[in-house]
Amino acid sequence: xxxxxxxxxxxxxxxxxxxxxxxxxxxxxxxxxxxxxxxxxxxxxxxxxxxxxxxxxxxxxxxxxxxxxxxxxxxxxxxxxxxxxxxxxxxxxxxxxxxxxxxxxxxxxxxxxxxxxxxxxxxxxxxxxxxxxxxxxxxxxxxxxxxxxxxxxxxxxxxxxxxxxxxxxxxxxxxxxxxxxxxxxxx
Length: 187
Hints:
Elements: E1 7-12, E2 18-22, E3 25-30, E4 33-38, E5 44-49, E6 52-57, H1 62-83, E7 86-93, E8 100-104, E9 107-111, E10 120-123, E11 129-132, E12 136-141, H2 144-157, E13 171-179, E14 182-185
Antiparallel strand pairs: 1-6, 2-3, 3-4, 5-6, 7-12, 7-13, 8-9, 9-10, 11-12, 13-14
């Protein structure tokens, strides 16, 4: 006899998206591409009812209810990604030594950072598109986790150690995050 549903959350499937569910693996297809994600948490379950996805649990613990909300948040991000995409804009900031940024496959090479002779490298995650101009870097893709982690890797590669950060402000920083047409500014 199945246990009763204690907590559930629903998210509506957008009209221009297709969703398939195999076990706990959800595949979302939209105008910009396809994303797939597995939710392995044994305390939660997922089902499709009409034009909604329902994440539910039959355990009434606070942490398990939070997992249901996390699943819905991931699905929402997947829907936005396959319909509109995500874009992170980064600014190259330097005071004395001009920084040169080049893309080599899945790596970003940062040259002449605060006058260093070596090359700092940052890894690009997943399937992201990157455009480098003189003072800007634009990273875009449909998976928010890949886009944001790639931007974080670039920003972290330019971290200054053993110097006063109030004086040495050089680096590459995220200045704007866009999802679809919505703009969030960090500055």
